């Protein structure tokens, strides 16, 4: 096994997690390579992962990695006492910790210690158990352009910081280019913030539904994170996670069946020159106060929403329309600390699917009021407007983009209100 040099350090969060002190260790293999892969570990160094990766690299089954073990943040109070911030670092369905790692921690480490890490996301892995497990997934979820490989052991997708919403969002979003190894045990905790075994199985079913490059293993008669520091298991899972690393890029293999009803698999946002001219509507006075109002394609209903409210309302388009007759049509998904929470713009297609442009993506609402698909935004600047004509168009502060839709969605000559139920 290759020898390693160990480095210990600390970094205090600046723009992200300000004031949080993070201690870390770095294991650098003493080998002559052009560049290293990156293996980021939650909750300090895990010798099982470190040793198995060194063995796999010696065997040519994985690259040599710069291995970073990071401890949860700590915060010093005015009286000098130190408060552990593990929940605030790991358990939140929130991008700040991921941004801290990608934009502050890793650049600091590479610059300070002169480490040459590959820029390829295929060469970056994030790993953790329990709260570190959900944090690993959340990190890759918000930064799939940086991390493509994920190991999570008994991940706490629980009601600590809205992590319990993730298994359902996994089903609705486009499938991300991730390879994921997931372990769980039979005797997981059952506490006030949820049942770990139940949410592990829900997460498993969601990842399978969405078509991820994914493997799930559950251990009977064992407890929480039981194999996290088991070296034999670490060798097996890391061998699978890094399989074909030198010859095969990690990519989404499919989208969920629901996403495939809206966009062709493999389609991408393409920059374009012009945003379509949107039709103007004679909006009834009774509902003019909303930020956004659009009619259904057959003019039988109106959809109304505000930018700061996560609700879309429906009004029947009759002579007696009034504010008192509003119907709750859809409850929009939100992510903590991402604003605005509600509709930035709206449009409908040829089967009366409502496209709601939000800060977390384009949320697609069927006539039954259910959101079945969330499409990723084309860039990381603020979204501005949306339109459906011969394709789906989005305007952001940076540019204008076009994306193909499935034929039924844009066949306005054969447009038909498609009443749907739970299982259309």
């Amino acid at each position: 096994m290759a020898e390693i040099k160990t480095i210990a350090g600390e970094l205090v969060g600046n723009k992200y997690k300000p004031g949080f002190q993070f201690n870390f260790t770095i294991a650098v293999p003493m080998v002559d390579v052009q560049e290293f892969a990156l293996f980021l570990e939650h909750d300090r160094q895990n010798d099982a992962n470190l040793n198995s990766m060194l063995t796999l690299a010696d065997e040519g089954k994985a690259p040599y990695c710069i291995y970073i073990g990071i401890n949860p943040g700590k915060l010093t109070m005015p009286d000098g006492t130190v408060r552990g911030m593990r929940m605030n670092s790991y358990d939140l369905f929130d991008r700040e910790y991921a941004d801290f790692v990608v934009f502050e921690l890793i650049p600091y480490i590479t610059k300070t210690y002169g480490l040459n890490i590959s820029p390829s996301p295929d060469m970056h892995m994030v790993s953790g158990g329990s709260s570190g497990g959900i944090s690993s997934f959340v990190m890759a979820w918000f930064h799939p352009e940086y991390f493509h490989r994920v190991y999570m052991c008994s991940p706490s997708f629980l009601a600590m910081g809205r992590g319990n919403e993730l298994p359902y969002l996994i089903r609705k979003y486009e499938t991300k280019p991730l390879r994921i190894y997931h372990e769980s045990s039979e005797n997981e905790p059952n506490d006030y913030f949820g049942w770990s075994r139940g949410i592990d199985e829900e997460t498993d079913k969601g990842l399978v539904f969405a078509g991820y490059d994914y493997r799930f293993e559950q251990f009977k008669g064992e407890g929480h994170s039981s194999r996290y520091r088991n070296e034999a298991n670490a060798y097996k899972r890391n061998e699978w996670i890094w399989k074909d690393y030198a010859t095969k890029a990690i990519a989404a293999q499919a989208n969920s069946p629901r996403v495939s009803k809206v966009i062709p698999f493999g389609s991408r946002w393409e920059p374009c020159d012009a945003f379509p001219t949107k039709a103007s509507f004679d909006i009834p006075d009774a509902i003019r106060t909303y930020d956004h109002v659009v009619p259904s394609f057959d003019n039988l209903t109106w959809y109304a929403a505000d930018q700061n409210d996560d609700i879309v309302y429906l009004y029947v388009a009759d002579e007696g329309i009034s504010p008192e007759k509003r119907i709750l049509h859809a409850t929009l998904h939100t992510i903590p600390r991402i604003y605005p929470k509600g509709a930035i713009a709206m449009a409908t297609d040829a089967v009366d699917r409502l496209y709601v442009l939000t800060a977390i993506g384009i949320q697609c609402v069927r006539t039954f009021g259910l959101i079945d698909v969330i499409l990723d935004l084309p860039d990381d600047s603020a979204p501005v407007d949306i339109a459906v004509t011969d394709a789906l168009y989005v305007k952001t502060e940076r540019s204008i983009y076009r994306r193909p839709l499935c034929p039924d969605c844009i066949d306005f000559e054969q447009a038909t209100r498609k009443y749907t139920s739970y299982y259309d």
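The mean pLDDT is 94. The chain has two domains: 4-241, 262-414.
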